[in-house]
Amino acid sequence: MNLYKKSFLKLLDFTPEEINYLLNLSGKFKSLKKAGIPHKLCEGKSVALIFEKTSTRTRCAFEVAANDLGIHPVYLSPDGSQIGKKESIKDTARVLGRMFDGIEYRGFGQDIVEELAKYAGVPVWNGLTNEFHPTQILADMLTIKEKFGELKGKKLVYMGDARYNMGNSLMVGCAKLGMKFVACAPDAYFPDKKLVDICKAEAEKTGAEISFITEPYIAVEDADVIYTDVWVSMGEPDDVWAKRIKDLTPYRVTADLMKSAGENCIFMHCLPAFHDLKTTIGQKIYDKYGINCMEVTDEVFESPASVVFDEAENRFHTIKAVMSASLCKPEVLENV
Length: 336
Ligand code: CP
Ligand code: NVA
Hints:
Strand content: 5-15%
Helix content: 40-55%
Number of domains: 2
Radius of gyration: 19 Å
Order of helices and strands: HEHEHEHEHEHEHEHEHHEHHHH
CATH class of the largest domain: Alpha Beta
Number of strands: 9
Bound molecules: phosphoric acid mono(formamide)ester, norvaline
CATH topology of the largest domain: Rossmann fold
């Protein structure tokens, strides 16, 4: 397996074998970390972490993973650089490519991260775009594998806005890894047909199944995983809230829905989640619309079925695999 110098822009660019390789490597890094064994495989390298949108998990995962690998990370905040305002992506790519060994980008269109990769001359990693969130999917798949021992044939039901980064990327991940993916939402919230067709073609090769169901209780029958995400994503205008709440409230993950899926079903969420009133946005939504949670109830979020913090931890082990696979020659990784 050789991913040396390869960017990580979306899972569609990777074969199932390459994705499984990254998952196995992540598991090895996790074991090393738990055993307290140092693994500074990339000593002397530097990476730029561009964040045009805010982040807790992704930023911290990249910074801590970088530290453990011996990499020096430089964080560029949403308003702390010239990017986009005074300097184009193409020029930024050529500047940063001269100084850094790799670049992480979190921001808006997928075309931006693709352009960065085209001109940087060093590997670029997608830390979330409007369309895809591939490092999150690696963490999610590692978590599912840890819980069930395997991925093939497992049924993941995604509840909510399935047209955006999380719905799209989970569909791609499930298609690549031979899983059963169900998007459960009103018709208007299903992923773009072009992407669905690509995923269905992929599913034919891997034995995956992809389906779209509007009825929550039918969708979750025999589910192994119920997954949800926020109803309004970063960068979307405030005026979509009212319609999203109206359209997606029937798709909230409740204890009753979890129960109907079966006792072994786990609950997943990329986080952050609106499950209580302990956030300023959560409180504002309560004041305006009178609801005390959105995509998931506090009861489900805090239940034993919820593995959301395992997912959050796995962001960091999987991002370590992504960075090291791009920055190290394969022989260096053979000994991990
Ligand atoms: N899940 C995730 O990407 O979280 P952050 O926005 O905190 O990075
Ligand atoms: N769909 C969410 C994911 C956050 C990790 C967003 O883009 O805001």
